[in-house]
Design goal:
The chain contains nine helices and 20 strands. The protein is of the alpha+beta class. It is elongated and about 75 Å long.
Length: 371
């Protein structure tokens, strides 16, 4: 195991800068996930850690050693790729043993390490097969096994599950989590799938246009997003956003369509500092309930149902708060037996202890004391 440190890391391709002074500290044994939309720089950042991309500026350290000038093979890391990168003419055993043979390890040691890795990944019965005889999930296990046998300081995963179907992705997420718990190695993992990030990570790096927007635990990323971008990228469906104006003394939030939401006393002080400002109001779908809520401080609003999406375990409903033409729309997550019908109106409750406010120009979260 080893820690990974990035200090003011910059990457340029000619005059185009794609990574902008990234600072990260990944502790030994930690599982850190880079997440963000396509083109945000997450794979480029991972490839720079691996040594597959040169660093324009800054330093990368692995296990206390600055590795900027070291080739990939000298960094003592193992990388698992999206496309598995297996040798089609070699057996599973030979694919897993390949790196050890390059390092001229004794045959007995090779067989022991491959056997142990195969047992961990439950692919011992596949060692004599070739990649074409394996399913996608089995091939990914082999690719992971090839990394495990090397006993590296850190594992790097570059969107390893993106070629798998939804059910297999869910199964492999569980296997990767188990693997980390068993081995305890440092893992840096890249994905565009926020569900993978939330379920796998000890900490998440949310990237936007080559910059770190937030580096925090999954709980903080979801419940205390540092920016509107983070709030909108996490959650399925993501957070709802509507423009709002903060009323006098921070006691009310005024939303489109003459919808006024009372601010609970516990948060009035937080909002009072922004009285009169135009901000962005954010609320997650699960914090919108049908009917009257017994939650202290909940806001009760009449809403018009615009669209209903039954999902089995629950029902998503797109509702227009207040029902007027100027009113804003929000998606709520309701129980599966909720009587939602498009075109009808119903009372809804908004959890006003859970709302978020963001600056409309910068997207940065507007937070009060205690956050």
């Amino acid at each position: 195991m080893a820690d990974v440190r990035l200090s003011r890391v910059v990457k340029r391709y000619g005059a185009t800068q794609v990574i902008h002074g990234v600072d990260l500290a990944i502790d030994s044994g930690e599982f850190v996930v880079f997440v963000g939309p396509s083109g945000c720089g997450k794979s480029t950042l991972l490839r720079m850690i691996a040594g597959l991309e040169e660093i324009t500026e800054g330093e990368i350290g692995i296990g206390g050693t600055v590795v900027n000038a070291l080739p990939p093979r000298a960094r003592d890391i193992a990388m698992v790729f999206q496309d598995y990168a297996l040798y089609p003419h070699k057996t599973v055993f030979e694919n897993m043993a390949f790196g050890l043979r390059l390092r001229k390890r004794p045959e007995a040691e090779i067989r022991t390490r491959v056997g142990e890795a195969a047992a961990i990944l439950q692919i011992g019965h596949l060692l004599d097969r070739r990649p074409r005889e394996l399913s996608g999930g089995q091939r990914q296990r082999v690719a992971m096994g090839r990394s495990i046998v090397r006993q590296p300081k850190a594992f790097l995963f570059d969107e390893p599950l993106s070629n798998l179907d939804a059910l297999l992705r869910a199964e492999m997420r569980v296997e990767i989590k188990k693997l980390h718990q068993k081995l305890g190695n440092t893992i840096v993992y890249v994905t565009h799938d926020q569900v993978e990030a939330m379920t796998l990570a000890d900490r998440i790096v949310v990237l936007q246009s080559g910059r770190v927007v937030q580096y925090d635990t999954p709980d903080a990323i979801y419940n205390r997003p540092a920016a509107k971008f983070v709030a909108g990228f996490t959650g399925s469906p993501p957070m709802n956003f509507l423009p709002c104006r903060v009323g006098e003394a921070g006691r009310t939030l005024h939303l489109p369509g003459a919808v006024d939401l009372p601010v609970p006393a516990a948060r009035a002080g937080e909002c009072a500092r922004h009285a009169g400002r135009s901000l962005v109001f954010g609320l997650r779908p699960e914090h919108i309930a049908a009917g009257a809520s017994g939650e202290p401080g909940a806001a009760h609003v009449v809403a018009k149902v615009m669209l209903v999406e039954p999902l089995g375990s629950d029902t998503l409903g797109l509702v227009k708060l207040g029902g007027s033409a100027e009113a804003g729309e929000m998606t709520g997550r309701f129980p599966p037996d909720a009587a939602l019908r498009a075109g009808e109106t119903l009372p809804v409750s908004l959890s006003m202890s859970r709302f978020h406010l963001f600056d409309p120009d910068t997207g940065v979260a507007v937070r009060g004391a205690g956050w």
